[in-house]
């Protein structure tokens, strides 16, 4: 499958991700499920988009479409101008569970990405060092996963996803299994990492606060079949001090709007 970057001359104009009139239906002998319907979304390069919505509304399905792990039943999905026709290597993917190899050190788990993509060893080592520094893992490079806290394991997973410098990072509830304080810490780090790497991020989250703190835009989905109820612009600077951001009227406006769309009690916080 084609892995070419955006055509010369169109760079900067093509969105990083484009979903055009996308629907996904799962058919089995027992039931037919329409997971997504009428999905149209453009994500410009470098943007941070959060996707929130009720359980089962198709959020993970949307990320799988972008990664090329799933094909739409109708409509088109484009990544940097290319129609997605199969698994893509120019993305990073972070899941709720870090899914690290227990017998490999943190560093060697991160370098797994390089082995899978046959990255030049020297470049991979240099990038791993930068990411270890950036995510505060310095001093724990040689630790095995069971010697790391949940937050540290998730940092390793993030480094692994970023090692090949993907232009698009897909994150599926990456901080959902962490305690509140660790989650807050990783939110702060995520804001910094996004600014430093310039990568485009699509984040699925059940936390309205996390979505509003991290994103430029929040995509709010309806119950199944998942459609886009509204896309909310977050008018906050890219660099966001945590507590101060939470106190800003714009933060309250966004979180209240999301809550209003999802209905009382529909989301985790
Ligand atoms: N491979 C599959 N085969 C059949 N049905 C599927 C498949 N994958 C997802 N579904 C269905 O599609 C719908 C959307 O699933 P998806 O995992 O995308 O939802 P979600 O919004 O990410 O949910 P959650 O917030 O609970 O993680 C669900 O009803 C799910 O059962």
Automatic annotation (TrEMBL):
<feature type="domain" description="ABC transporter">
    <location>
        <begin position="17"/>
        <end position="248"/>
    </location>
</feature>
<dbReference type="GO" id="GO:0005524">
    <property type="term" value="F:ATP binding"/>
</dbReference>
<dbReference type="InterPro" id="IPR050166">
    <property type="entry name" value="ABC_transporter_ATP-bind"/>
</dbReference>
<dbReference type="InterPro" id="IPR017871">
    <property type="entry name" value="ABC_transporter-like_CS"/>
</dbReference>
<keyword id="KW-0813">Transport</keyword>
<keyword id="KW-0067">ATP-binding</keyword>
<dbReference type="InterPro" id="IPR003593">
    <property type="entry name" value="AAA+_ATPase"/>
</dbReference>
<keyword id="KW-0547">Nucleotide-binding</keyword>
<protein>
    <submittedName>
        <fullName>ABC transporter ATP-binding protein</fullName>
    </submittedName>
</protein>
<dbReference type="Pfam" id="PF00005">
    <property type="entry name" value="ABC_tran"/>
</dbReference>
<dbReference type="InterPro" id="IPR027417">
    <property type="entry name" value="P-loop_NTPase"/>
</dbReference>
<dbReference type="InterPro" id="IPR003439">
    <property type="entry name" value="ABC_transporter-like_ATP-bd"/>
</dbReference>
